[in-house]
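Sequence only, no structure available. Ideas?
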Amino acid sequence: MALTSGTRQLLREAASWGVVAIIAVAAFTQFDELKTGAERMLGATPPQDVAAEGDTSGQLGAAVGAGSVVTIAAGQNGHFHAEAEINGRPIEVMVDTGATMVALSYEDAERAGIFVNPSDFTGAVSTANGITHIAPVTLDRVTIGDITVRDVPAAVLERGRLRTSLLGMSFLNRLSRFDMRAGELVLQE
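Reply:
I predicted one. Tokens follow.
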């Protein structure tokens, strides 16, 4: 039985729509994995606009370590705050996948035992608050929960230019994985 050209065209279109439907279903069911993979490939900043359910305190998200996995709950503002140890001293940080490196406020750097001179501010970066000078440093160790990373590239910003220190990609890229899901950030050593 021979098919007419109109029937063949109809079958081709039906097959094309079937493929589109399969791709749409796969994309819908695997959205989180596809999004995370695309963000890592493109170096994009994942959105941080989810708030943890029931967290109305606005305080630091709880960091609970389980072996080499640490889970940080989003604060009421949707950001991921935690207490890290930098060079063995406790420092409040915000985890920021949009920050190229760990960025310390001048005051937090001093708390961590890092003292910079005016001549150490040899770099410049563009921030949300404009251009500022930085002093490149290397942190002996950064610990969050049960995860410790050594020899972490970082930058100290000029006094008064950064309110909260940022745990950026120079730390996060040294982990085996990190991802955000349902108001939680999961870090794995």
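The longest strand covers residues 130-144.
Hope that gets you unstuck.
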